[in-house]
Amino acid sequence: MRHFRLLVLGNGISAYGSYLNMVALNVFVYDATGSALAAGLFMAVRLATSVVSGWVSGRLVSAHDRKRLMVGADLCQAAALLTLLLAPDGMRTGLLYALAVVTGGCSTLSQVALRSSIPEIVGAEHRVRANGLLVTGRSLAMIAGFASSGLVVAQLGYSAAFALDAATFLVSATVLFLLPVRTKAAAADGGPAETSGAVRWTARMLLGTAPVLMAMIAVRAVDGLGSSSHNVALPIYSSSLDPDHPATFISQFWATWAIGNIVAQQVIGRVTKKTGRTPGERAFALGACVMSAGFIVVFCGLPTAPAVLAALVAGAADGFTEIVYVSRLQTAPDDQRGRLFGLSASAENTGFGLGMLVSGALLEKFSPLHVVAAFHGLAIALCLALLLSLLRRGGARGPGAEERADRDTSTVVKGRG
């Protein structure tokens, strides 16, 4: 785990750059073009690229060395930012959309490659703890990136923000390159020959052999809808609470959410170490219900203290479900894992992107509470349906059915690959 902690540090640094980049670039696009449509188009191109990249990344991760892919993705993002930084002012606007393609595609590729590699880097028995560390690192990076972006841009300017962002990707690439870690199973190191079975992998096959995994991916896609709704609604809701200081509640919300993520990592790590058991699909469905319910409560107009407490619960449940979900998908065979995470990334990004468009339109007519409750309510309904299905399956198969299903799914997928 010593090497993995260094990897988490490098990943957290690049994540900080990504979140800084997310704010600085969106503001820069609007300042450079003076058009809200151009800013929206930039975000749309980036999200669309992320969706497409999920499918492509699954194939790349299954066929090629994942460490090299992650290093290459970081270097490409750094190069794209430096190109934008060094370009004349007249060329920057045109380069922005190329940058959106590069950052959207490379960030998804890096995420798919890393998640697919964790069981090989730390061992399958340590994957829950490793996933928790990654969740914690990215949560802290998100808070730092969002909190410092305004200060960096205001005090140092866009060029400094782009240079700092590029530097974070270079640091991450260097850390990854120097770490002596193996990212693929030994049996899969044979190169192109390994992909002959993987090519036959399709979502239809997975639906037939591992319907629970597909249901979990569907839940994550709908969770993306819910996440987009509270992301879009939060500035509006915060402004209604305190028109003079609209950023106050947003800062409180995200800081508390991050604390909840960290608490979840600590709790699930201790429970897993003590019991030797990994929370499964039922825990995922229940945790997703709690998460969505927590986000709805945040927008109910409660006083600050209970609203922040609800954000803490939502953050903890969010971190918990993220760890359980990723750990569950990592039980798939190594040669199929990359495509599985690629499918997951496409589903999540599709849900989030669609939700951004729809929730933004709905907020023109409805209150933040109504929009957030509708989107997260849909997620709760789907999670309850999944939970009910799992309980029925468990009752039919007897005690220990969920753990046996976990092993059986991995075996079946491997056999069909």
Automatic annotation (TrEMBL):
Pfam families in UniProt: MFS_1
Biased composition (Basic and acidic residues): 400-409
Bilayer topology: Multi-pass membrane protein
Localization of this protein: Cell membrane
Domain Major facilitator superfamily (MFS) profile: 3-397
GO molecular function: transmembrane transporter activity
Any one GO cellular component localisation term in the record: plasma membrane
Keywords tagged on the record: Cell membrane, Membrane, Transmembrane, Transmembrane helix
Superkingdom in the source lineage: Bacteria
Membrane-spanning segments: 7-30, 36-57, 69-88, 94-114, 135-154, 160-181, 283-302, 369-391
SUPFAM superfamilies from the UniProt entry: MFS general substrate transporter (SSF103473)
Annotated region (Disordered), positions in chain: 396-417
Gene3D superfamilies linked: MFS general substrate transporter like domains (1.20.1250.20)
UniProt-recorded name of the protein: MFS transporter
Species in which this protein is naturally found: Streptomyces ferrugineus
Taxonomic lineage from the root: Bacteria, Bacillati, Actinomycetota, Actinomycetes, Kitasatosporales
